[in-house]
Amino acid sequence: MICKDVHSALSAIRERYESGQVVVVHDAHCGWPIESAHKSEWAEVPSLALEVSEAAKSLETVQHIWDFFFEHGLTRRALVIAIGGGVLTDLTGFAASTYKRGIDYVNVPTSLLAMVDASSGGKTGFNYHGLKNGIGTFHAPVETLICPDFLRTLPAKEWLSGFGEMLKTGLISGKRQKTAAKPLKEESLWNALLQYDLDAMETEPLTPLIIACVRAKEAIVAQDPQEEGLRKVLNFGHTFGHALEEISIVHRQSSNRQLLHGYAVVYGLIAELYLSVIKLGCSKEPLQQLTQLMLHYYGKPECKCSDRERLIALMQQDKKNERAATINCTLIQAIGSPVINQVITVEEANEALDYLFSL
Ligand SMILES: NC(=O)c1ccc[n+]([C@@H]2O[C@H](COP(=O)([O-])OP(=O)(O)OC[C@H]3O[C@@H](n4cnc5c(N)ncnc54)[C@H](O)[C@@H]3O)[C@@H](O)[C@H]2O)c1
């Protein structure tokens, strides 16, 4: 999982595959190949560098990756190494899951968001007809190697985006058991996250928090790999978050600014924490703590009045919904006590949006 020398770890995995049957697909800006004594060994491995972005999380990019696999004669026993942020690992995972009915891939996440969330759990996909991850598969990587050294080149706003997903994990995770394996000193992941110094953005104190988030996600996914029930707790903040993110993709052409996934999740968490307070009697404390953090680091969400109807429509269309035209959310009764399948009325959704946009 956490590895200091990613080249050595990958070399060990590479030995399990036939020579000529290992390729790398990487984000052109992720810092690969990272500096190490073993860097030169990777020069001979065919690699495809991609310019990725949420807008390029498309079928065209998937086709480009499939073409690269065919060009290098990959068989069904090949290995693809996906190195990059969540867009790159989702796209490459999808291409690997469908090429010749599925080949192996390894994820090497290089953004914080990909380390704590996108690179584990086996969900792959791309955006289609304006719907985020509208087409996708479940296809778990054979391994995920997390090398926090990649974070040294990650821009601050991307760092904050990843931290948004960590905050979600903190809110749905309970008190820590007293085991030798626990990576944190604090009693709860949420408290540990609130104590992390986001101004300094240091990798070392972040590493135990990354480990705790990955373990929390893996424990949930192991019990419900296909998202039939329990796994939906990971969607806390995402019903509102995805709708806000999709609206920003629509506005991207005019404003040239798109909401980063983790920022959208933070705004979604505020709306869904608000609903947790009014519907499930959750204490106001986490909402107040997150609101303070949001105002200090993430800024206020932007929304035009004309967006309201579209936001509600997007939430009604969300693929997490069990029934058409309803809004379905995961909420929390308290930190560490998530409740799935909460049906939200349009009035309640509007009230939560009123709260969010009034901040
Ligand atoms: N599969 C899942 O379970 C899952 C879970 C959460 C999110 N996601 C997906 O993940 C995506 C978001 O991931 P993301 O935030 O990593 O976005 P991203 O992949 O677009 O990466 C963010 C930016 O950081 C750059 N970057 C990546 N690593 C870098 C590094 N080490 N140094 C410098 N720059 C670097 C990228 O080039 C990009 O510009 C979304 O599409 C979302 O749907 C998937």
How would you describe what is shown here?
- The protein is built from twelve helices and nine strands.
- It is an alpha/beta fold and about 350 residues long.
- The protein has three domains: about 5-150, 3-Layer(aba) Sandwich (Rossmann fold), CATH 3.40.50; about 155-225, no CATH class; about 230-359, Dehydroquinate synthase-like, alpha domain (Up-down Bundle).
- Strands 2-1-3-4-7 form a five-stranded parallel beta sheet. Strands 5-6 form a two-stranded antiparallel ribbon. The chain has a two-stranded antiparallel ribbon with strand order 8-9.
- Helix 4 (about 110-120) packs parallel to helix 7 and helix 9 (about 260-280) packs antiparallel against helix 10 (about 285-300).
- The radius of gyration is 20 Å and the shape is globular.
- The mean pLDDT is about 90.
Describe how the helices and strands are arranged.
Elements: H1 6-14, E1 22-27, E2 47-50, H2 59-71, E3 79-84, H3 86-98, E4 104-109, H4 112-118, E5 123-128, E6 131-138, E7 143-144, H5 156-172, H6 189-195, H7 203-223, H8 238-255, H9 261-280, H10 285-298, H11 307-317, E8 327-334, E9 337-344, H12 346-358
Parallel strand pairs: 1-2, 1-3, 3-4, 4-7
Antiparallel strand pairs: 5-6, 8-9
Helix pairs in contact: 2-3, 3-4, 4-5, 4-7, 5-6, 5-9, 8-9, 8-11, 9-10, 9-12
This protein binds nicotinamide-adenine-dinucleotide.
Nicotinamide-adenine-dinucleotide is lined by residues 27, 29-31, 52-54, 57, 84-88, 90, 110-111, 113-114, 117-118, 121, 123, 133, 150, 153-154, 158, 161, 261.
